[in-house]
């Protein structure tokens, strides 16, 4: 689509964009941007079946509008914050398509996918300028200028700018990041029956648990021949920047690493690992260890080890202490480097404590078959006390604390559910975790982490989503769960119901049937959740269908505190803003 017959000018006096025709310079339109920040960069660019005019301001904001190639008229003005400093736009060509590089304190690549603009943040900082180059030595490359120098590179895959695969040659099981040492602690499993090369066999720095049993007499667990065991578990220390494996610690034969986390205590940082000794004749592990390691930059030292009766399925921190789930017990350990690990208190009323989350003095326990329980750690009294439970029999695969009164759970039948802690007058009501929402995800979520896949909006505008939880599934998918306010939830719920009647699903399965919470005992309608995948389908609809759906949808679209009926453009902007959080 040819827009070369038009010229766009950004005016500093009135903060507007003016479009002129070429070659007669006849003014076709004046488009007010509003505000007092001046235009710093302007660009017209065709993407797929559409053409856009983009303009950046001195505060890092980007305005973009559709431009009609026949008349030069501008429409559908939208705004996004790319950074907090002045941004420069530069066109480049890659993968047989146009792309725009936004040079700023938060550099971004802009491109079109399925006729929708996508803003992909580059994993660099403070790019001052970009220039495309194409030579024999640097084909289809980009030259980037920053405060530290000149960088020449190329875009390998525009949607995979931040993805890098690190081959280990063995299976990673758990991972923890230690910010103070810029290292990862990774528990891996290697199959001894496979002779392929792996990092745990090629690393130059290797220690073995049979060599560091705290000076005590090694028992039969450490005397077994590792060659006779098909699985060998290791703790890898990996550099954050180079992904080089700096050290490998091999656990004892038949000892499996189950959990790891980074622990800060007395101005020092440690990796705490939970293990289990596996015997094929036993239905569950009867022995395990809680081990504390310290990485000093060159050597991994085992500073403490504590034998326990059971498998240490999970470890985390509560009030500066180490918290561990060991078979049917939740145990608090006190740690001092000179004294080692000492048990402070235990909680026994679980079938199998497999997941733990702590927030302040509150502890959320994910039980293998008994759903979730909320405990409180009374530090002065040195004891754990349960304060509320979900009495439904859910087979848990992960738990997370959303806030002091709201808790997220995932269960074996690919469902998510949310419980809240009630504050009623009756003791029975206060001890009950009440169901607040349920939803069929369709895949097994087995890890939750608070975080985001994109940088937070630096513009200072109130966020649409207040807290985001990343989940990983057993199918290899990464997804996002966000917490939103009730007015936005009500709007999206109404929109979701309208879309469910309009959009045809794969296999023609009704949306309410697919998303209904169901397991081997019950099936109930979904509630308390919005299906983000369905909401984003609104952007793919023809304009006529959008107009039919956008009826009687009231919301504070302007951020003034006053509700009004939304237009199609209001909904498109709102959904695009929500889509950018992932």
By secondary-structure content and strand pairing, the structural class works out as mainly beta
- The poorly predicted ranges are 213-218
Strand order of the largest sheet: 15-16-18-19-17
Helix content: under 10%
- CA radius of gyration: 28 Å
Our measurement of the CA-to-CA distance between the termini, rounded to an integer number of angstroms, reads 30 Å
General shape: globular
Tally of extended strands?
42
Portion of residues in beta strands equals: over 45%
Query: On the 0-100 scale, what is the average pLDDT?
Result: 87
Question: How many alpha or pi helices?
Answer: 8
Largest beta-sheet characterization: 5 strands, mixed
How would you characterize this protein structure?
With 582 residues, this protein is mainly β. Helices cover 10% and strands 48% of the residues. It contains eight helices and 42 strands. The longest helix is centred in the last third of the chain and has 17 residues, at 486-502. It is globular, with a radius of gyration of 28 Å. The protein starts with 5 loop residues before the first strand and ends with a helix. Mean pLDDT is 87; it is low at 213-218.
């Amino acid at each position: 689509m040819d827009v070369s017959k038009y010229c766009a000018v950004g005016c500093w006096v009135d903060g507007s964009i003016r479009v002129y025709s070429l070659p007669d310079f006849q003014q076709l339109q004046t488009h007010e941007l509003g505000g007092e920040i001046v235009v710093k960069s302007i660009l017209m660019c065709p993407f797929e079946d559409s053409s856009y005019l983009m303009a950046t301001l001195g505060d890092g904001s980007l305005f973009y509008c559709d431009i009609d190639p026949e008349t030069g008229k501008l429409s559908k003005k939208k705004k996004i914050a790319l950074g907090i400093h002045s941004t420069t736009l530069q066109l480049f060509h890659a993968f047989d398509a146009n792309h725009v590089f936004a040079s700023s304190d938060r550099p971004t690549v802009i491109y079109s996918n399925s006729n929708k603009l996508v803003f992909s943040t580059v994993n660099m900082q403070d790019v001052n300028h970009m220039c495309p180059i194409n030579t024999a030595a640097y084909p289809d490359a980009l030259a980037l200028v920053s405060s530290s120098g000149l960088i020449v590179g190329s875009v390998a895959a525009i949607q995979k700018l931040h993805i890098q695969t690190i081959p280990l040659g063995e299976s990673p099981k758990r991972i923890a990041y230690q910010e103070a040492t810029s290292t990862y602690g990774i528990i891996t499993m290697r199959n001894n029956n496979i002779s392929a090369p792996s990092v745990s066999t090629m690393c130059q720095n290797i220690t073995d648990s049979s060599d560091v049993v705290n000076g005590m007499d090694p028992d039969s667990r450490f005397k077994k021949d590792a060659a006779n065991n098909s699985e060998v578990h290791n703790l890898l220390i990996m550099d954050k920047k180079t992904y080089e494996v700096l050290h490998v610690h091999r656990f004892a034969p038949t000892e499996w690493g189950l959990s790891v986390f980074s622990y800060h205590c007395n101005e020092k940082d440690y990796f705490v690992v939970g293990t289990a000794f596996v015997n094929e004749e036993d239905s569950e592990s009867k022995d395990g260890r809680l081990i504390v390691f310290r990485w000093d930059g060159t050597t991994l030292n085992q500073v403490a080890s504590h034998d326990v009766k059971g498998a240490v399925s999970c470890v985390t921190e509560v009030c500066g202490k180490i918290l561990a789930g060991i078979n049917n017990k939740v145990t608090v350990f006190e740690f001092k480097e000179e004294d080692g690990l000492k048990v402070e208190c235990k909680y026994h009323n679980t079938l199998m404590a497999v997941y733990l989350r702590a927030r302040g003095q509150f502890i959320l326990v994910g039980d293998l078959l008994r759903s979730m329980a909320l405990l409180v750690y009374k530090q002065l009294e040195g004891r754990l006390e349960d304060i509320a439970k979900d009495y439904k029999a859910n087979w848990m695969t992960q738990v997370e604390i959303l806030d002091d009164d709201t808790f997220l759970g995932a269960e074996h039948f690919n469902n998510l559910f949310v419980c809240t802690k009630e504050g009623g007058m009756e003791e029975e009501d206060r001890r009950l975790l009440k169901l607040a929402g349920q939803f069929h995800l369709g895949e097994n979520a087995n890890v939750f982490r608070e975080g985001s896949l994109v940088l937070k909006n630096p513009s200072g505008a109130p966020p649409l989503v207040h807290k985001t939880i990343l989940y990983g599934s057993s199918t290899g998918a990464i997804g996002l769960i966000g917490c939103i306010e009730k007015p936005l939830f009500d709007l999206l719920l109404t929109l979701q119901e309208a879309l469910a009647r309009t959009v045809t699903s794969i296999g023609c399965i009704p949306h309410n049937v697919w998303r209904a919470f169901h397991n081997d005992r019950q099936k109930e309608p979904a509630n308390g959740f919005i299906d983000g995948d369905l909401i984003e389908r609104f952007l793919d609809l023809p304009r006529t269908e959008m107009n039919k759906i956008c009826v009687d949808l009231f919301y504070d679209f302007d951020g003034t505190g006053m509700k009004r009926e939304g237009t199609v453009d209001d909904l498109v902007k709102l959904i695009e803003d929500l889509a950018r959080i992932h």
